[in-house]
Amino acid sequence: MNRIAPDPDERVRLYAQVTAELADSLRRLTRAYEMDDDLRRDLYQDMQVEIWNSLAIFQANCSLRTWVFRVAHNVGARHVLRQMRRRASRHVALDEAENLADFRDASSYAEDASALDAILRLVHTLKLIDRQVILLYLEDLDTQSIADVVGLSPGNVSIKIHRIKQLLSKSIDGSES
Amino acid sequence: MTEDAGREAKKAWKSRSDGFDIRPSSVATLAANARVRSTLSRMATLLVAIATFGFAIYLLPTRGVAALPWILIGAAAATEWWKRRSPRAMASLTTVDFMRQELRRDIGDCLRLAGWRGYALLLGVMWLVIGSRIIADGAAEAFAARGIVESLAIAIAAPVVLSAVIHAVWRRHLRGKAGAMRRELEYVELIGR
Questions:
Q1: Could you report the predicted ipTM of this complex, rounded to two decimals?
Q2: Is residue B128 within 8 angstroms of chain A, CB to CB?
Q3: pLDDT tens across A34-93, in order?
Q4: Most exposed of A39, A71, B136, B173 (fewest Cβ within 10 Å)?
Q5: Nearest-CA neighbor of A164 among B67, B89, B10?
Q6: Contact A81/B103, CB-based, under 8 Å?
Q7: Quick check: A35 contacting B, CB < 8 Å?
Q8: Residue range A89-101, pLDDT digits in tens
């Protein structure tokens, strides 16, 4: 495998590039994994540390963006799995989410709830893999890049994105009415 | 309609960003500190494993069964050290593979904890009390003179009864956790094909 960041200077340069280009995306991402402010800051810090560590072995077989998202999502997944060990929580798959009353019943949202709150509410309900697909879709990654990060086939990702759009449509309509 | 919803959702998603940040210079320090912490913790676990195995070897020729819990504790510590020794890959794995690895490891941990390791640790704690009293009282010779069957009965019966009661509750809890993680793993396996 080709290592393109073997020296410390290159690592610092790559990290600066990540900070400049993806800091906002990473902050949004932590919001999708943790609601609590303090825990979210810890999670963001963990992500940054893991990204820094991973840049020492960054390989040229994918883009920096895909690499960073992969690390960040894996840190997020680890965080959720740890939370699962501590407290019982139930996450649903996309097809189950379609049947949840919360996303069909417009009155379940407070009048002042924003579309963002509705999206976050949907995201926090989903199983980890589905959650990652929706987050990467919201971050404007194309189907192939999402498949590269998550590890699903592009066809599978397309189907999920189609369902996600339907769910988002219901969620946002619900939040606006 | 769904296309519009997708666009609207993306717009809403990017509309708000939390203000917190970390200075790039701090990240290298944080990473170095984490590495030192992890190395120290690994070394401590290894020292515990070596010390307990050493103590078990010391006990074995003279006190036989008294060494058993120490061997088990040593094995538990050695397992823990081995587990911590293997680094958790983050970037080289897709999320599906990463979750598969994490969940399998967690399920294994739960079941192992629910099984022999938890039992061994409890047994070990009991033996710290009982064994040290026997040694302190100078009753080791009397204990050994009873013969292997009777010694085993005395050595194991009391801790087993107590640990079985405590452990039954703990094990059920851990098995419940393992069950939840197994369901999660089944879902990952299903969609990751």
A1: 0.73
A2: no
A3: 888 888 888 998 899 889 888 888 877 778 888 899 899 999 988 888 887 666 566 667
A4: B136
A5: B10
A6: yes
A7: no
A8: 666 677 666 655 4
